[in-house]
Task: structure prediction
Amino acid sequence: MEKLLNEIKEKIENVTDLKTLNELKVEYLSKKGPITELSLKMKDLSIEEKKEYGMKLNAFKTEVNNLFDTLKEKLEIEELNKKLESEKIDITLPSKRIRKGSKHPMTRIKEELEDLFVSMGYEVYDGPEIETDENCFQKLNLPLGHPARDAQDTFYLENEYEAFLLRSQTSTGQVRVMEANQDKGPIRIVCPGKVYRRDDDATHSHQFMQMEGLVIDENVSMADLKGTLETFCKKLLGEKTNVRFRPSYFPFTEPSVEVDVTCFKCGGKGCSLCKQTGWIEVLGAGMVHPNVLSMCGYDPEKYQGFAFGTGLDRFAMFKYGITDIRTMYGNDERFLNQFSRKDD
Ligand code: DAH
Result:
């Protein structure tokens, strides 16, 4: 035992790392090592001898273990200190970027318009996208079989829901607000939202955004309509914008107009965007048809109103130079990221 202890002491003195120490430990303390061999000798001894030998062997084993444990502890501390020295954390390194979402260009336009109309005393009304034929057409003076329905062919629901369709225009908001208004008094609302039609090309998507406006009061005239829409166009597109009203036809207004603005790309000189006319059509509008008023519970002898409807996609396309409407509904991050702003 003494010989073995000296041998271990000698070898352990030269050990400077944990790996070698472990190898040495295995060499001496494993089941096939010399210390096990010493234990095996017990079986050849008498009871008396066993007692003495056993005590010595235990003391010897404890000493050997202590030798290994002490050095192990020392080496571990050394190794940790080395690690701490070499692995300094550089707190000046940039942190990981947190990816932030951004507002969709359509949301930006919608919010901008809502703010504008709220500042003029309007309320924002949010109607459902699934509608009845009555609200989408009949009460807007488009009875079953009316030819103007063709331009707004939409998606109809099936089976037990076949009375419903996806609204093709936000004009449904007019019907809903007039009918819900118990006192049948004045109304001033805008109704932005998604609408659906059976269209699909670079400038027409099966889903797009509109905003409807409705003002009902006594003594409302075409002059109010004109002033309101001029203000709206100039605020949104710039004070230099000229606004032009052309006679038109919509079943729910009489008289009806279409509203053009000077082309925001060429300023009215004529370019490819405005097809060399200098004008771009942005709104449909008119005085609410007496039939619509009375179908929605308003007395046309007492009240008049004006209404307008505009496509928000068009404004977003013009404002941000978007050439294909379908990119706005494609959810491609490369497109959407272009609209992120620091202040979102
Ligand atoms: N609803 C019409 C459309 O989708 C737009 C419109 C035209 C709305 C004239 C109006 C209006 O309120 O008076 O094409």
